[in-house]
Protein 1
Amino acid sequence: MNVPNLDQTIELYHGQACQLYWQIGNVLRRVAARTSLEPPKPVDGNLVLALPVLQRVAKRLYGVAQREADAIGPPSQRPRKFKLKVVEVVAIMLHVHPVATGAWPELGKVQQKSLNLQQYITFPK
């Protein structure tokens, strides 16, 4: 059986890496706040499994955002290619996209790319 490569490449324009980083950070902060309450409130098991994946994506996005912030001169008009593994796309679609407020363009790019995966994965609407 041939397993297809389900990794995705999205394009992030200037500032979008930082926005997606903050959206992932909001999810991570909510989990930290729930578990630090007395008594702690339970967290969904699927989210617990996705936390290391979201942290890894956030770390990579932070690096991209820092390079953009440190760049000298006008921002590039060309988008940066950002590769997401299939587990990263699924974690973002399940835990970041449903709770994100506003129409963040980078989440739209992730959602557009995830449509390629709909024949393999069912995302909640």
Protein 2
Amino acid sequence: MIPTYDIDNITGNLDIMFQNIMKIGFIFSIILLTIWMVVSLTIWLFRSQEEVRKSNKIWNKEFYNSLNISDNRT
């Protein structure tokens, strides 16, 4: 005898498995994103203030130099 097929379950429960994989992937990506944000903010909070001052001096110096150059040309 030929077996009959269940039309309601034509995918063979693959859709449920796919939904579970997507749920696990989403939760995993949210956890990784949260860990990355916490580590980044911790590094930002505890980094050396001397490095910050030094980089600010460099950026400010370049910015003011660009202003002076543009003023001298006019």
